[in-house]
Design goal:
By secondary structure, the protein is mainly alpha-helical. The chain contains 14 helices and no strands. The longest helix has 28 residues. It is elongated, with a radius of gyration of 26 Å.
Length: 258
């Protein structure tokens, strides 16, 4: 089922427009379809947000005007019936009754789609949204002759994680006890699709007593999240104790996981 079809089905389900058999089938599918679950959550979120807009901004008013225009242009069943030929058979009311509900849900789906474009709740994945925003910094050794670690840091901070990994990997293999090196090397592994390898490095940091102990736990959770493994992501988020740097962020992220 395509996203648009799922969106329309979600709208019909949440607005109570399904027959019992279709509803039961939908709920069975909902239990195992993560995308469908997300659409249900976002549908409810957008509609709740729209209800809470007490003092709309100029942008909100423009959106409202756009929605009204779309509804009038594309979703007005009265206009559809009006444009039918004059010699339309006498059973026109039957057509009207069958088309109108579909248009109603298409209209609702259009509202939701536009709402998602405005608030963009999933414009960035949870992994991107909750990633630790921190540059890799090293002690300066002279701007004219940067050492190897500084070159890796420059690539890392430019988000060239593959380039940074090529430099950091042999350095880590040589000095795995360097926790700063290990931490940033592990992040480059996550960012380049080597999540399992990264977790091996993060686990050593977590089992140690360095300042990166709970950062490593948090990023281990993110590595699972990047692979859409929310169960194990939650397990690692729960290891982050109150009072540590990432505790609040971890709690917020857990509230968004199934």
């Amino acid at each position: 089922m395509m996203n648009e079809e799922k969106l329309l089905t979600v709208a019909r389900y949440l607005e109570g427009d399904m027959e019992l058999q279709e509803k039961e089938g939908f709920e069975v599918q909902l239990e195992s379809d993560a995308e469908l679950q997300q659409l249900v959550a976002e549908y409810n979120h957008i509609h709740q947000t729209l209800k809470m807009k007490i003092a709309p901004s100029v942008e909100d008013k423009n959106v409202q005007a756009t929605l009204e225009t779309l509804n009038k242009q594309y979703f007005n069943s009265a206009d559809l019936i009006k444009d039918l030929p004059a010699e339309q058979p006498a059973d026109v009311p039957v057509v009207k009754l069958s088309v109108a509900p579909y248009l109603k849900w298409m209209s609702i789906a259009a509202v939701l789609v536009i709402g998602l474009l405005i608030w963009a709740p999933w414009s960035a994945s949870l992994y991107e949204k909750y990633g630790i925003s921190r540059e890799m910094s090293v002690v300066e050794r002279g701007a004219d002759q940067p050492n190897t670690l500084e070159k890796a840091a420059a690539l890392y901070n430019a988000k060239d994680y593959a380039g940074a990994r090529k430099i950091l990997q042999p350095m880590y293999m040589e000095t795995p006890q360097n926790t700063l090196l290990a931490y940033y090397f592990a992040i480059t592994l996550v960012e380049t699709g080597k999540e399992a390898e990264a977790r091996t490095v993060f686990l050593k940091l977590y089992n140690g007593e360095s300042v990166f102990k709970y950062d490593a736990a948090y990023y281990t959770a993110l590595s699972f999240l990047k692979q859409e493994n929310e169960k194990d992501a939650r397990i690692w988020l729960e290891k982050i104790p109150e009072g540590t740097a990432n505790y609040t962020q971890a709690q917020e992220l857990m509230s968004k996981l199934k």
